[in-house]
Design a protein that fits this description.
- The protein contains eight helices and 15 strands.
- It is an alpha/beta fold and about 325 residues long.
- It folds into two domains: about 170 residues, 3-Layer(aba) Sandwich (Rossmann fold); about 120 residues, Rossmann fold (3-Layer(aba) Sandwich), CATH 3.40.50.
- Strands 5-9-4-1-2-3-10 form a seven-stranded parallel sheet, with helices on both faces.
- Helix 7 links the parallel strand 13 and strand 14.
- Helix 3 crosses helix 4 and helix 5 runs parallel beside helix 8.
- The radius of gyration is 22 Å and the shape is elongated.
- The mean pLDDT is about 90.
Length: about 325
C-alpha cells in the first residue's frame, strides 16, 4: 500500500499542544518509511509562530481555516471534510478526545472509510501495509486492524501513547490558508432533547509528573500503600495504579495506567508489585527509566525494566526509608 500523505487533525485552537505534537511525531515516523508528506489540518485563528512550530516535529504542510471559536461539531467536520477532499491523504490521525472522536466518526461516514478507535500503536510492515493496534475483548488482547477497502484510513489515538520529538535542521513548513464557505445544512441531524452541564473541578494530569509510583496486585495491605504514598511526597511523585489497584480501591480511576486507563512517559517510573501484563506495559513503554519491584523473579515486567528488584515490597521500603 503506497502512502503519499498522512494527515493529522487538530481539534483545538492550541495547535502546538503536547497532544497534537505527539500525533505529528508519530505521523512523521510513519511518513519517513517511504518519504511521504505530513499534513496538519487546523481550524481557528491564525498564529504564525504556533503553526510554524509544528514543522519542528515533522509537519510538511499546514492547512489553516481561519474561523475562531468553531464549536459546532458538524461545521467543524464539514471544514475538515473539505480539506481532506482537496488534499486527499491516504491516512488521517485524530486525537481521541471527545471532540476528536465525534469528528472522526462523522468523517468516516462522509468518506465511507474505515475507522479504528483508541489506537495504542500504528505500524508499517515490510509489505508497506499499515496496521492499527487497539485493546479488545475487555482489554484481554491487542487487536491488529487493517483497512483494506478504504480510500482513506482513519484512526483516533489516545493521549500519551506516543512521545513528541523535535527534529533537528527542519525547514519551516508551508502554511496554506483554506477558504471555506458554509455548505452544510444548518439543521443538526441529531435532535438534543435535554442537556445538563456537569462540572468537574478536579482535572487529573498524570503526565505533568516526572516521577510516577505505580501500585499493582502485589500491594495487598493498606499500610504498604500508605508507605508508598508517603514516599511519593518526599520525591514529588504521583501515585498511580493498575486496573487491579483500582478495583481493589487503592487508586481512583483517574489515576489508572494502561490500555483502559492513561499512558504516561515520566523520566522515572517505579512499579510496586506489578506483574507486567501487556495491558499495563503499553501505558508505560515510553517511560525514561523503568524500575520494577516484585518478589516473583519471573514477572513479565522485568523484561521491560531498566532496574529489576526481586524482593518483598515492604523490605525495599524499609531500605529506602533508612537511606532518606
Amino acid at each position: 500500500m503506497n502512502i503519499d500523505k498522512i494527515a493529522v487533525i487538530c481539534d483545538s485552537e492550541d495547535y502546538d499542544s503536547q497532544y497534537i505534537l505527539q500525533l505529528i511525531t508519530k505521523a512523521r515516523s510513519l511518513a519517513d518509511y517511504d518519504n511521504s508528506k505530513v499534513l496538519v489540518c487546523c481550524v481557528g485563528p491564525y498564529h504564525k509562530e504556533k503553526l510554524q512550530n509544528l514543522s519542528r516535529f515533522g509537519a510538511d504542510t499546514i492547512i489553516i481555516c481561519e474561523r475562531p471559536n468553531v464549536t459546532d461539531v458538524w461545521m467543524y467536520s464539514d471544514i475538515i471534510s473539505e480539506m481532506l477532499r482537496e488534499h486527499m491523504p491516504d491516512m488521517a490521525i485524530f486525537p481521541a478526545s471527545d471532540f476528536g472522536k465525534e469528528i472522526a466518526a462523522i468523517i468516516s461516514t462522509v468518506f465511507e472509510a474505515g475507522l479504528t478507535a483508541d489506537c495504542i500503536d500504528i505500524k508499517r510492515n515490510k509489505n508497506n501495509e499499515v496496521s492499527f493496534y487497539r485493546a479488545a475483548l475487555n482489554d484481554s488482547v491487542i487487536a491488529e486492524i487493517q483497512c483494506k477497502d478504504s480510500a482513506i484510513r482513519l484512526c483516533t489515538v489516545k493521549k500519551g501513547i506516543f512521545v513528541e520529538s523535535i527534529l533537528e535542521d527542519r525547514e519551516r513548513c508551508n502554511i496554506e490558508r483554506f477558504p471555506y464557505e458554509i455548505t452544510y445544512n444548518n439543521k443538526n441531524p441529531v435532535q438534543i432533547l435535554e442537556s445538563k452541564k456537569i462540572s468537574n473541578n478536579k482535572i487529573v494530569d498524570i503526565n505533568k509528573y516526572e516521577i510516577v509510583f505505580c501500585v499493582g496486585r502485589g500491594v495487598k495491605k493498606v499500610s504498604t500503600y500508605k508507605r508508598i504514598e508517603d514516599l511519593s511526597k518526599r520525591f514529588g511523585a504521583v501515585v498511580a495504579g493498575t486496573r487491579v489497584a483500582v478495583e481493589e480501591g487503592f487508586i481512583n480511576k483517574e489515576y489508572q495506567i494502561g490500555q483502559s486507563g492513561k499512558s504516561v512517559s515520566p523520566k522515572i517510573y517505579v512499579g510496586f508489585g506489578i506483574s507486567g501484563a501487556s495491558q499495563h506495559i503499553v501505558g508505560i513503554i515510553n517511560s525514561g527509566i523503568i524500575v520494577a519491584i516484585n518478589k516473583e523473579e519471573n514477572a513479565p515486567i522485568f523484561q521491560y525494566a531498566d532496574c529489576s528488584i526481586v524482593a518483598d515490597i515492604d523490605d525495599i521500603l524499609d531500605e529506602i526509608e533508612k537511606i532518606i
